[in-house]
Structure formats: structure tokens, C-alpha cells
Design goal:
It is a single chain. The chain has 173 residues and is of the alpha+beta class. Helices cover 60% and strands 10% of the residues. It has eight helices and four strands; from the N terminus they run αααααααβββαβ. It has a four-stranded mixed beta sheet, covered by helices on one side. β1 and β2 form a beta hairpin. It starts with a helix and ends with a strand.
Length: 173
């Protein structure tokens, strides 16, 4: 992790940089280990932290705070798992958490009752567009996702709720 940070700071682009770093590490281990023996672990940790600090993109976290809190939570879970468990395990945790969030999101799609905007053929969500007119006896129901086995029960419950909440529905579109 720290070698990646050093290569990134040095603008290394090819595998030659990795080979050079390996040779330098080998020479250091063979001939210069005695110089590092008396160096406190805290100082070594500080060197690694400075090298790794630029790998963490805090601006992206701030952007996600404003744009999409669910993605920020996934980023935080992945970061914590990587920090406390390990890199490979953290990546696996991040992938599994993302898949779980995707399944949850697809199983509960956004649905809306739509009304027609006067003087047009446009139908929009009546909750966000109060000027939209609802046709008596007709409920126009929009599902903002494909109908799949994962969300069929959720959609069925919403349709049944519409039958109860709307007065005398004659047709459902």
C-alpha cells in the first residue's frame, strides 16, 4: 500500500518503477537495516502515513456527503473493512455491500401516481407537480424500474394501497 503511494507521488507509470523499487528495497534490507534498527516504530509509522495520506481522497467523501449518502456509507464500510481487516477482504466487503444495496434498491423502486399537465400530453408525479390533473376514476401509476421478481411484491402492495386510497378507481394504467 505504501509503495503504491510512493509510486503515485513519483508519477510512476510503468512496471520499471516497481522493479527499481524492489531493487532499492532489497539493497536497503541487505546493507542498511542497521541504520533503521534504532528508529522508533512511531517514526516509521509516520513515514508510512505521510506516504499513504495522498491515496485517501477526502474530496470524494465530501462530494458524496452532498450528492449520495448511500454511496458515502458504502465507501465508509469499504474503507473501514480495508483498514481493520485487510485490503483483499475490504474489497470483498465493499463489493458485497454494494451488491446488497443494489438488490435492496431494485426491490423497492420509486413509484408515483401521475396526473396530466393541463394543455399538454405530459404526465408527471402529482406529489411533485400539484398542477397535474388526476382523471376521475383513472389512476395512472408509474414504476421507475423494470418489473422483476425482486420488486413484484412491493409493486403489488403499492397497487393494492392505491385501490384503497383513491376513491372508486375504475381503471389502472
Amino acid at each position: 500500500f505504501s509503495r503504491t503511494a510512493v509510486n503515485d507521488q513519483a508519477d510512476a507509470r510503468t512496471t520499471v518503477a516497481t522493479r527499481v523499487a524492489a531493487v532499492i528495497s532489497g539493497v536497503t534490507l541487505l546493507f542498511l537495516t542497521g541504520l533503521y534498527r534504532s528508529l522508533p516504530n512511531a517514526a516509521l509509522a509516520a513515514i508510512v502515513m505521510v506516504a499513504v495520506a495522498n491515496l485517501v481522497n477526502w474530496r470524494e467523501a465530501v462530494h458524496l456527503w452532498h450528492a449520495d449518502r448511500r454511496d458515502l456509507a458504502l465507501m465508509a464500510v469499504t474503507f473501514a473493512a480495508t483498514l481493520f481487516v485487510g485490503i483483499e477482504e475490504g474489497i470483498v466487503v465493499g463489493v458485497l455491500a454494494s451488491l446488497a444495496a443494489l438488490v435492496y434498491e431494485n426491490s423497492r423502486p420509486h413509484v408515483a401516481v401521475c396526473g396530466r399537465i393541463p394543455g399538454s400530453q405530459t404526465w408527471l408525479n402529482v406529489r411533485h407537480h400539484p398542477e397535474a390533473e388526476v382523471v376521475d376514476g383513472v389512476v395512472v401509476f408509474r414504476i421507475d424500474s423494470g418489473l422483476t421478481f425482486a420488486n413484484a411484491e412491493f409493486v403489488r402492495e403499492r397497487v393494492q394501497l392505491l385501490a384503497v386510497t383513491h376513491p372508486k378507481p375504475r381503471d389502472l394504467v
